[in-house]
Amino acid sequence: MTPVDVRVKIGPELSIGKNEIVNVSQVTCKNDVASWKDILLTGSPALTMNTAIFGTLANGMTINGTDYLSPIQSGIQVMTITGLNSASISIRVYIVLNRSPTQDIKVNKGDVIGQINFEQKNDQSGCPKCGPYRWRLIADNDAYFVTTSCTINNGQQINVD
C-alpha cells in the first residue's frame, strides 16, 4: 500500500534524554458510519525513521501517554471512535539523545522524517474497510538541532591570571 503524505511541524529544541520531534495530534480521524466502531492500531513496523537524517539515534512514540521505544510492537490501540465523532491522533514521535557526541540533525521542509504504520479495524462482520494505513511524515518546516553541548568547569566561571 502506498503511504499517505502527512505534513507535520518539527519541534525546535533538544536536550539529553527523550525529545519530541513530531506531534501527530495535528491530525484528526473521523468515524464515517455512526453505527460502526472504528479501531486504529499500530501496524508493523509501527515506526520507521529516516536514518539519513537521524542516523542510529534511539527513537519511539508516545501513544496515549505511554512511551514505546522502537522497535514498537504492532497491535497497540491508538484510538476507538464511533457515532460520527472525530478525534486527534494521540501520538508523539521522539528521539533519545545521550551524552555521547553525535552529528547535528538538519531537517529541511519537505524531507521525509519517517513513517508510521497503522492497522484499521472495525466491529463489523468481515471487517469491511479494514486494512493498513501508511503515513509518511513530511517536514512542514526547516529545523536544525545541535545534538551535543560542552561545558567547561561545570559551567562555573574560570579565573585567568
TrEMBL record:
Q: An example Gene Ontology cellular component term from the record?
A: pilus
Gene3D superfamilies registered for this protein in UniProt: Fimbrial-type adhesion domain
User: Which is a Pfam family this sequence falls into?
Assistant: FimH_man-bind
Q: Which residues form the FimH mannose-binding domain?
A: 5-125
Instruction: Name the GO terms of the biological process aspect.
Output: cell adhesion
Q: Which InterPro entries does the entry link to?
A: Adhesion_dom_fimbrial_sf (IPR036937), FimH_man-bd (IPR015243)
Taxonomically, the superkingdom here is Bacteria
Coiled-coil regions listed in the entry: none
Q: By what name is this protein known?
A: P pilus assembly protein, pilin FimA
